[in-house]
Amino acid sequence: MRFERKFIIPYSKKNLLDYFLKNHPLNIKTLFDSRIINNIYFDNINFKFFKDNIDGISDRIKIRARWYGQTFGRIKNPKLEFKIKQNTLGEKKFYEMDDFFFDEKNGIDEKNLIKKIRSKNIKDYINVNFIRPKILNVYNRKYFITNDQYFRITLDSFPRYYDLEKKKNYLRSVNHFEKYHILEVKYNKEYDKYFQFFIKYLPLRLDKNSKYVFGVNKILENKII
What is the pTM for the complete model shown? Predict the structure, then answer.
């Protein structure tokens, strides 16, 4: 179980962000090269996971398929992730997935994708027979880590969202280039006592930011779910 603390950094605060990353006393350094992250988020027909997040349910879950690099074409080495949240602590469970094809115009073969997930015989957390792909989320991510390796930092930019609802006969995208970054600080719970020292050099408020919730709100606005 670990903490994941999020900060919304407006582009107008970019100088502050750069200073934080370059001059922190814990010597923040690049962990590895930046890359594009792709997520297909799943939910049931009633959008239970979405509503649990909106309602602030303490024990909740997100299910997503994640891969890196190119968004469309033959998707290689994807992973199915169960992101489990218990109050402010969270953990992830990973399962290998078979490759699948993602057409840039028409989206994915939903039946085939769900069949691949069912074939893994996953029985933890939820019955996967009732989940369906809802949205695709794509963004750029940079990775950092403190010298003591207590805190891992990710910086996400340029989010894009795509509607994956089955009833549509095309892939509808919503480009949403908000003028902010999402800075996330991830650390094991035993290091929580050091967090205030770590973050005092970044005088911005913690925020609640869920890419899945934001994407659903953006794509399904003006609908009742």
Answer: 0.86
Contact 157, 138 (CB under 8 A): no
Tell whether 104 is covered by a domain: yes
Q: What is the pLDDT of residues 129-147, one digit of tens each?
A: 788 899 999 999 999 999 9
Total number of domains constituting the chain: 1
With contact defined as beta carbons under 8 Å apart, do 153 and 185 qualify? yes
CATH number at residue 192: 2.40.320.10
Residue 18 located in a structural domain: yes
**127 residue type, one letter:** N
- Structural domain span for residue 64: 2-219
Identify whether 80 is part of a domain: yes
| Alpha-carbon separation of residue 125 from 92, 122, 194 (angstroms) | 12, 9, 32
**pLDDT bracket for residue 224 (50, 70, 90):** very low
pLDDT tens per residue across span 20-76: 889 999 999 999 999 999 999 999 888 888 888 888 888 888 899 999 999 999 999
Q: Is residue 170 situated within a structural domain?
A: yes
Instruction: Burial-class residue 78 by CB neighbours within 10 Å (0-12, 13-18, 19+).
Output: buried
Alpha helices (H) along 69-194: 110-118
